[in-house]
Amino acid sequence: MPLKAELHCHIEGAAAPELVIRQAQKYGKDVSPYIQNGSFVWHDFTSFLKAYDFAADLFRTEDDYARLSEYYLTSLARDGAIYSEIFTSPDHATKAGLSPQAYTDALGEGMARAKAKTGIEGRMIVTGVRHVGLESIEAAARFAARCGHPLVTGFGVAGDERNGDIEDYVRAFEIAREAGLGITIHAGEFGGWESVQAALDHIRPSRIGHGVRAIENPDLVKRIAAEGVVLECCPGSNIALKVFDSYAEHPFPALLATGCKVTLNSDDPPYFWTTLKHEYDIAAEHFGMSDKDLTAVTRTAIEAAFVDRKTKAQLLARLNTGHR
Ligand code: ADE
Ligand code: ZN
Domain Adenosine deaminase spans what residues (predicted)? Predict the structure, then answer.
């Protein structure tokens, strides 16, 4: 089994239906519109976001969040992952009644517990959510810059790409960059290639969340390769959300062949009936990748990780020996 690393997973979106059902019982909520037969129910991006927001609202205390990150990183480690970056969302915490600092500390506590049990290294990327609005995105950037949590090493923007304009986020990203945080932005998922170009032009990220619709513009693909921007690809998510109709049409192999740096990620795993391991299996089955190819993908992820140089060297050494 190749060792793995994940750069793109929304922690609220990593809660399995069983866990969400347990939280709903704890808070006296009815899950039936959103979970049926042990599976999340949604039919398009808008209804996916609604189910996601419903489930996220069931994580309300520090203990809820600590258990969530401990559970997710432990399950990743079981599947051969040595490194995990999770997207955190101060907006979801605030909505659920917890301060961003208490939420971040709790997630960090869960990550520390998972590390103690399994050795998995983890970091957090604070995100702003486009459909919540510009002010909240800037507030998330300010929080990320000042929170001082040692595991917060990045800032990103997620949410519905049909809301807002990438240019409007320049100030938020400048706040994060000045604080020394790594920069990633969702683009080229529901936005076309133009959104990826706008991200490169205005935000200058080292990584792009998804980015796969860059394939619609060959010159842009060449630019991504030339600039060494890393794409956080989530093939299972893209197929579930119908960004592409089938794995045969997914651009992962074409992007790789053009020299783009690509990684494999689960995004919101149970919503898309996937796991990080399943993404590696998809790449083996549908994109013809060998274990050696997959290990190279893990290396790309670790090289692009928002982690200090010493930890990165240790992770690369673990990868090179093949031992966790
Ligand atoms: N938030 C959680 N999952 C997302 C996705 N796939 N795209 C944009 N925002 C998200
Ligand atoms: Zn995402």
Answer: 4-320
Measure 236 CA to ligand 1 centroid, in angstroms.
13
Atom of ligand 1 nearest to the CA of 271: 3
Domain spans, the chain: 4-319
CB within 8 Å of 291: residues ≥ 6 apart: 2, 284
Point out the catalytic residue in the list 12, 189, 232, 279.
189
- Looking at residue 324, its pLDDT comes to 74
Geometric angle at alpha carbon 307, from 82 and 259, rounded to 5°: 80
Is the full-model pTM beyond 0.90? yes
Q: Mean pLDDT in the chain?
A: 97
Q: Which CATH number applies to 4-319?
A: 3.20.20.140
* Token pair of 47 as six digits: 């209804």
pLDDT score, position 75: 98
Ramachandran angles phi, psi of 118, nearest 5° = -125, -15
**β-pair partners for 155:** 126, 183
The contacts of residue 121 (CB under 8 Å, 6+ apart) are 82, 83, 84, 115, 307, 311, 315
